[in-house]
Write a structure and sequence with these properties.
By secondary structure, the protein is an alpha/beta fold. It has 7 helices and 10 strands. The chain has a 6-stranded mixed sheet with strand order 6-7-8-3-9-10, with helices on both faces. Helix 5 packs across helix 6 (145-157). The longest helix has 16 residues, at 175-190.
Length: 222
């Protein structure tokens, strides 16, 4: 599913020096695998996820997804890839507070060639899977932190993406809601989704559905 070879990512800092965020990363992830990417803040976890989401391009190396090198995508093809293939879940909510939960799911659907019935069905399916359907008509501003995270999950998966990328998804959640989040991921894995989580939250250390646990330090996989 995902093949990363000799991946490097450099950033030019304000003082002109080069910061090597990722160094010679090689990684293989099979379809349906649940991969845990562990590391402290600044280790390169988020940068790797951004590249897998085609939000950043690597400095060198290849990133193949289903046989295509997404690192070579034009902006247009990268946007199609983000729309159809990946879902991105972060620790920040980035929801429209004045809109309801179901309304927050619309942006991911209106860009597809769907009719009203299909859009409604996709919304309902995603909200049920994320355990937030009972709050469909509630404005986001009235939701708890855990409910907002489930709304984020629903929005991320409403387009039926095959790859779920999670960047410190439990950072703003208490233990109870973190465990609920893991339950949702378990359902997604059962549906054959490929899941990659970047985190330093120890709650994932005993998660039984993890297929592969990797550590990243100073931009290098250990």
């Amino acid at each position: 599913m995902i093949q990363i070879q000799n991946l490097n990512k450099d950033f030019k800092e304000k003082n002109g020096e080069i910061f090597h965020a990722l160094k010679n990363i090689t990684l293989s992830v099979a379809q349906g695998e649940f991969v845990l990417l562990k590391g402290v803040s600044g280790s390169g976890k988020s940068t790797l996820l951004h590249i897998l989401a085609s939000q950043l391009k690597p400095t060198s190396g290849s990133v193949e997804v289903a046989g295509e090198n997404i690192a070579s995508y034009s902006d247009y093809h990268a946007s199609l890839y983000r729309r159809d293939i990946t879902a991105y879940i972060t620790q920040s909510f980035h929801l429209f507070n004045a809109l309801t939960v179901e309304e927050n799911l619309l942006p991911a659907l209106v860009i597809k060639d769907l009719n009203a019935v299909q859009i409604n069905a996709a919304q309902q399916k995603a909200m049920e899977l994320a355990n937030i359907a009972h709050k469909a008509k509630q404005k986001v501003s009235n939701l708890s932190g855990g409910e907002k995270q489930r709304a984020i999950i629903a929005r991320a998966i409403v387009s039926d993406a095959q790859i779920i990328l999670c960047d410190e998804p439990t950072a703003n959640l208490d233990k109870e809601n973190s465990l609920l989040f893991i339950e949702i991921l378990t359902k997604l894995k059962a549906k054959g989704k490929t899941i990659i989580i970047a985190t330093h939250d120890p709650i994932f250390d005993t998660c039984k559905i993890i297929d592969k646990s990797l550590s990243i330090k100073e931009g290098t996989l250990e």
